[in-house]
Write a structure and sequence with these properties.
Helix 1 runs antiparallel to helix 2 and helix 3 (118-135) runs antiparallel to helix 4. The chain is 28% helix and 27% strand. It has a 5-stranded antiparallel sheet. The relative contact order is 0.19. A hairpin with a 6-residue loop joins strand 7 and strand 8 (177-181). By secondary structure, the protein is an alpha+beta fold. The protein has one domain: Creatine Amidinohydrolase (Alpha-Beta Complex), CATH 3.90.230.
């Protein structure tokens, strides 16, 4: 069942999203060659805690960190480490969640580490743009499949692989709620969107194959062909004639 959130709940979700956005603003300054993924995690955790919130991911299903830090061929759920030092030419996706007064904000963004290749720039740009192609379809009365199809068709038009095993999701008092939001699909299918639905839409796009595998730690998910991957995500609320981004300043 897809919950409709009240304006009171949306206000709390918006504050949770603002805290996440503050983390991403700081990450724009901090992501650089020579910094460890653990340092990035710790900075985000301090920001979250300083705004009377808690990290949504830490302890979730046993995940040990506040942030998912996914470098290069890691698609999602990369675990921060003091030993993982970013280097020139890497790309990193940072997925950040904050829980404020019982409500969650969730947003992922991909960052270039120093100068990156033209191929990696294209991957990041297409993944970013595919998110907004999907968001363009969001409004009351649209089908969820309209959103999914717009994301997948755009990314596939560049020859990139669209990850199928992981999806976007509803957000509210729980970090993951109905519905699952695939990044591929058919227009005119799936649930009909209604005002007040809060959704985390998050394309995960690979430079090569769409196929992934999970490493022995049970979390870290990588591309099967070791090609790089990018990830962008916003939490939004459905409105009558469009959407409102909640994970923004």
């Amino acid at each position: 069942m897809i919950e409709i959130k009240s304006e009171r709940e949306i206000a709390l979700l918006k504050e949770a999203g603002r805290i996440v956005a503050l983390c991403h603003e700081e990450m724009k300054k901090q992501v650089r060659p020579g910094i460890s993924t653990q340092e990035l995690n710790d900075i985000c955790e301090r920001i979250i805690l300083s705004h009377d919130a808690t990290p949504s991911f830490k302890g979730y299903g046993g995940f040990p960190s506040a942030v998912c830090a996914s470098v290069n061929e890691v698609v999602v759920h990369g675990m921060p480490s003091k030993k993982q030092i970013l280097k020139e030419g890497d790309i990193i996706a940072l997925d950040i969640g904050a829980c404020y007064k019982g409500y969650h904000g969730d947003s992922a963004w991909s960052y270039a580490v120093g100068a990156i290749s033209a191929k990696d720039e294209l991957l990041m740009q297409v993944t970013h743009d595919s998110l907004f192609k999907g968001l363009e379809q969001v409004r009351e009365g649209a089908h969820l499949g309209d959103v999914s199809a717009a994301i997948g068709n755009y990314a596939k038009s560049f020859g990139f692989g669209v990850v199928e095993e992981f999806t976007g999701h509803g957000v509210g008092r729980n970090l993951h709620e109905d519905p699952a939001i695939f990044n591929f699909g058919e227009p005119g299918t799936g649930p009909i969107l209604k005002e007040g639905m809060v959704l985390a839409i998050e394309p995960m796009i690979n430079a090569g194959t769409k196929k992934v595998r999970i490493l022995n730690d049970g979390w870290t998910t990588v591309t099967r062909d070791k090609s790089k991957s990018a990830h962008f995500e916003h939490t939004i609320v459905v409105r009558k004639n469009g959407y409102e981004i909640l994970t923004t300043l």
